[in-house]
Design goal:
Blueprint: E1 3-6, H1 11-16, H2 18-22, H3 24-39, E2 60-62, E3 65-69, E4 76-78, H4 84-94, H5 106-126, E5 133-137, H6 143-150, E6 154-159, H7 162-172, E7 181-183, H8 186-194, E8 200-204, H9 213-222, E9 227-233, H10 237-244, E10 259-260, H11 263-273, E11 275-282, H12 286-300, H13 305-314, H14 319-328, E12 334-341
Helix pairs in contact: 5-6, 8-9, 12-14
The structure holds zinc ion.
Zinc ion binds near residues 47, 70 and 75.
Length: about 350
């Protein structure tokens, strides 16, 4: 029986994602452009996770892209292939937002502590006590690596983005005298995973961005690592909201998110990797998204601040309590899973 944990406070989301409320127009425009690029790729033939042939009509379309549930594993697939050129165009434009700096970025530390330390704590409370060595793949700027170091674990990070790795190392250096992040190309990325001596491989918000997730599944299976810690985005109420409110930035299913997991496709993926789940933490931002959809539309309808304040008082202030109902119903926008190899030591 896996350890189950539900929900988390939304306060950091409210303060750190203010843009989602105030910059709806530019965010929506960018998402639609990215979806157009995606819709220009060749049609996807097989499920991103179980690789069964996708048959039948799309289940729904949102912001210019059709989506189809896999008949075998219920994974939600975008109708198009995320080709090499799509991925390059998507992530090259993301790269280079942050630059290596000698100055301590206070937001970096704040984000590592507020968002990533709770993730590390969930891992620590799930695993038997030991000083684990972690390889964080797709580490980006290394928030999870810093959070692990702050919790006195041994941790290294791996990413294909040199800019993010350099920025992250420049920040982490302020906390400990090392540069734990390493940048590698796509081929070396999977080789490093196969050859790691880490006890735990973590992939937080990474698997959904991989062009060929099967390469990751294989690399993990072949590695000596006994544990895997991952988080992935899920099909949930947020996706229905995005289908209805087409004038609001779709946070869950656009841009780099071309496919989403379901409870069944998580089980299928665990089977492919030959792991068993020992810890599951579900928390979503579905109700935050509902509140955002309402607020953006009320504001564009020109309602008074008094009305907006009343909506906050009666509904916005209860987001966490309402979200908890969805989380505990296993129907929310994100899941964290700690899993152990079935063939493990
Ligand atoms: Zn499938």
């Amino acid at each position: 029986m896996a350890i189950e944990k539900y929900s988390k406070p939304s306060t950091f989301y409210l303060s750190s994602k203010k843009d989602f409320f105030s910059s709806n127009e530019p965010l929506l425009k960018k998402a639609i452009e990215q979806n157009q690029l995606y819709a220009n790729q060749p049609k996807r033939a097989c499920c991103k996770i179980c690789q069964s042939r996708l048959v039948g009509d799309v289940d729904f379309s949102s912001h210019g892209v059709g989506y189809i549930f896999c008949e075998k594993c219920n994974h939600l697939n975008g109708s198009y292939d995320d080709t090499q050129s799509f991925v390059e165009k998507m992530y090259m434009s993301e790269d280079g937002k942050e630059y290596a700096s000698n100055y301590l970025d206070e937001n970096f530390e704040k984000r590592a502590i507020e968002v990533y330390v709770p993730k590390v704590d969930f891992l620590i409370t799930t695993l038997p006590p030991k000083k684990y060595k972690i390889l964080d793949v797709g580490c980006g700027s290394g928030y999870f690596v810093l959070a692990s170091l702050l919790r006195n674990l041994s941790a290294e990070g791996l990413d294909v983005s040199r800019t993010m790795v350099e920025f992250g190392n420049s920040q982490i250096r302020h906390h400990c005298d090392s540069a734990p992040l390493k940048s590698v190309d796509e081929v070396a990325f999977f080789d490093e995973i196969k050859n790691t001596d880490a006890d735990v491989i973590s992939a937080i918000g990474v698997i959904e961005h991989l062009r060929e997730p099967q390469k990751f599944f294989e690399a993990f299976r072949e590695s000596a690592s006994n544990y895997l810690y991952y988080s992935v985005p899920m099909f949930s109420l947020s996706v229905a909201l995005e289908n209805v409110f087409s004038n609001v930035f779709p946070r869950q299913l656009s841009g780099g998110h071309t496919h989403l997991f379901t409870e069944e496709s998580i089980i299928e993926m665990n089977k492919i990797m030959d792991v068993s789940s020992i810890g599951e933490w579900r928390f979503g931002t579905d109700i935050m998204d509902l509140y955002r959809n309402l607020t953006v539309n009320l504001q564009s309808n020109g309602v008074s601040q008094k009305m907006v304040d009343y909506v906050y008082k009666g509904f916005g202030s209860k987001i966490d309590a309402i979200q908890h109902i969805l989380d505990s119903n296993h129907s929310c926008s994100e899941i964290h899973v700690v899993a152990v190899k079935n063939s493990g030591v």
